[in-house]
C-alpha cells in the first residue's frame, strides 16, 4: 500500500512533532510513509475567510499532489474534512489518523505506553464533519498505563473555529473558559485531541492560567512507548 502523510500548514509550521509522531507510529507498525514535498495548504482558511475560488483551487492542487496514493493520513480532522468536502469521490483517499488505524489498517492496540491521566476533547470537525465517533477513544483505551478520564460536556465546542476565534473573540473566550473548566474538573495531566488547532486554543488558555495541564495530540500519545516516551 502506498501511504502518504498530509502534514497540514499548522502541523508544518507550529506542530512538526505531531507529523513526526505519525510517521514514527506507522513505521513501528510496519508501514512506509511517503511525504510529497510539493504539498501546500488545503485551502480551508481561504474558504473560511470568504475566498472560495482560491480555497477550491488549493484543494484541487492538493488532490493532484496526492493522486496515486492508496491512502493519505492527516493528523487533523479539520483538514481531512476540508479535502473530502471539497473534492468528494474525485479526491485522494484522505483519512484522519484514527480512521486510518482502525478502518484501513485494522489496528486498535498500537503498542503504546503512556502512564498519565488523560482527558479527550472531541473536536467539532471530528464529531460533525468526519463523524469519528468513539474511534480516538478506542485507541486511547488500548494504551498501556493510561488513566482515561471522561470529559464533562465533551461535545461542546472549545471556541476556536479558525477565523471564528479572531472575528468573535469575546464569544470564543467565553467558550474556551467553559472548556478549560471541564478539563480541570477531570484532574487530568493531559488534554488530548485529534486537531492541533483546538489543542493550541485550549492549551494557550491553560498555559496562561498556569493550570499545569498539557495539550498533547493523539498521534503523540500513540507514538509513545515504554522505551521511547514521546510527549
Describe the structure.
By secondary structure, the chain is of the alpha/beta class. It folds into 2 domains: 102 residues, Rossmann fold (3-Layer(aba) Sandwich), CATH 3.40.50; 107 residues, Rossmann fold (3-Layer(aba) Sandwich), CATH 3.40.50. It contains 12 helices and 8 strands. The strands form 2 sheets. Strands 2-1-3-4 form a 4-stranded parallel sheet, with helices on both faces. Strands 6-5-7-8 form a 4-stranded parallel sheet, sandwiched between helices. Helix 10 crosses helix 11. It is globular and about 45 Å long. The two termini are 29 Å apart.
**How much is the average pLDDT?**
95
Low-confidence stretches: none
Main sheet characteristics: 4 strands, parallel
Estimate the strand proportion.
Answer: 5-15%
Distance between the amino and carboxyl termini? 29 Å
- Assembly status: single chain
Overall morphology: globular
| CATH level-1 class of the largest domain | Alpha Beta
Order of helices and strands: EHHEHHEHEHEHHEHHEHEH
Tally of discrete structural domains = 2
Give descriptors for this structure:
Rossmann fold, 4-stranded parallel sheet, 12 helices, 12% strand, alpha/beta, 231 residues, 8 strands, 2 domains
Layout of helices and strands:
Elements: E1 3-5, H1 9-13, H2 16-28, E2 33-34, H3 44-48, H4 52-65, E3 71-74, H5 77-87, E4 94-96, H6 97-104, E5 117-120, H7 124-129, H8 135-141, E6 147-149, H9 164-167, H10 169-185, E7 190-193, H11 196-208, E8 214-217, H12 218-223
Parallel strand pairs: 1-2, 1-3, 3-4, 5-6, 5-7, 7-8
